[in-house]
Specification:
6-stranded antiparallel β-sheet, 1 helix
Length: 401
Amino acid sequence: MRHLLGIGLLVTALTSVSVLAQDTKASDAAARLKAPQGFTVNVFASGLSRPRLMTVGDDGSLYVAEQGANEVSRLVDANGDGVAEQVDVIAKDMPLAHGVAWHDGWLYVSEGNRIERIQDADGDGTFEGREVVTTNIPEAVHHVTRTVHFGPDGMMYVSTGSSSNNNPESDPRRAAILRFNPDGSIPADNPYANDEDPKRQPIWAEGLRNSVDFLFTPDGQLWADHNGSDNLGNDVPPEEVVINVEKGKHYGWPYCYTPDLGVVSADAKDVQDTRVPFGGSISSCDQSTPALFTDLAHSAPLGMTLYTGTAFPAEYQRNIFEAYHGSWNSSVARDCKVQMIVVKDGAPVSSEPFLTGFRDNDQENCGGAWGRPAGVAVGKNGELFVSDDQNGNIYRVTYTG
């Protein structure tokens, strides 16, 4: 158990206000951040080791994958003051732990080369149950993060990144979203469940270079983000921040990408990355499915969540909040921030910054910035949690009017 110092007030109305804290470093962290009018930001926890994706348990605690420590931790706010008093490490030796998801009383954890699940069966706070669910995912190379979520169909979905920037894969399980039964077996209705190549059997959709996170909409659609290929310039390809991922479809990489910026029209066509000759599973960009919504190249979208709470004003509800990790190799710096993707009538229609201030100036690339948001999660009281894997903080955003 790690005990944390209490950290109080923070940021409102895009300006800094007084900070009440004994932990000066954490106070400074909070004072840097800017949220829209009426919102307050505080440091919920600090001192974590590359915190990435998060989820909230039935107990109301925040569970986070600490990728730098190969651990999963529970952050407990026992007195309800908006600050975690303790961090309990509930599982160790989970290499490249990245995603966490609850299903049927188990906490599933996506690691570099497997999915495990842990359980506190007797409710005493100790996760004594632990078992490997599947190793039917490719080894962690280049893009090493794997993310796990459960769909409304009860199936386990896992995203896996590519092993290179733009080389076609020899293992079809890379650059894909995979689908399993909760026990790790192959569902009979997977699009390639009966393929003679067993490595194709878990594939749900492919051509996704690095879909670091995804979510399910109220009507059951799977929406994912996607980091496109590098070395095509500062503006190409746009980041595909919302993709409607459907059974058996191909989303272009490494052969094609969506060229539109912002809302992608219904009749849009992907275009070819001419560096990569067609081959493998598609022979034309006509076979590639465009994104729904894009943003500036090198924004690096990571964690994403649909705001399902009611504590935020109506204009913020039912929108997507997405952590942009920002640029590291672009001569035109892209901001690291939390972006809100506005959803109307079941479609993304616009976007705007929600949480900023992670850089010292607009010219700074986020690879060297003070902070970089990585994950987002909605809390039991409708607050928004944001993990920062650059400095080990987790922030809590609330609406105070």
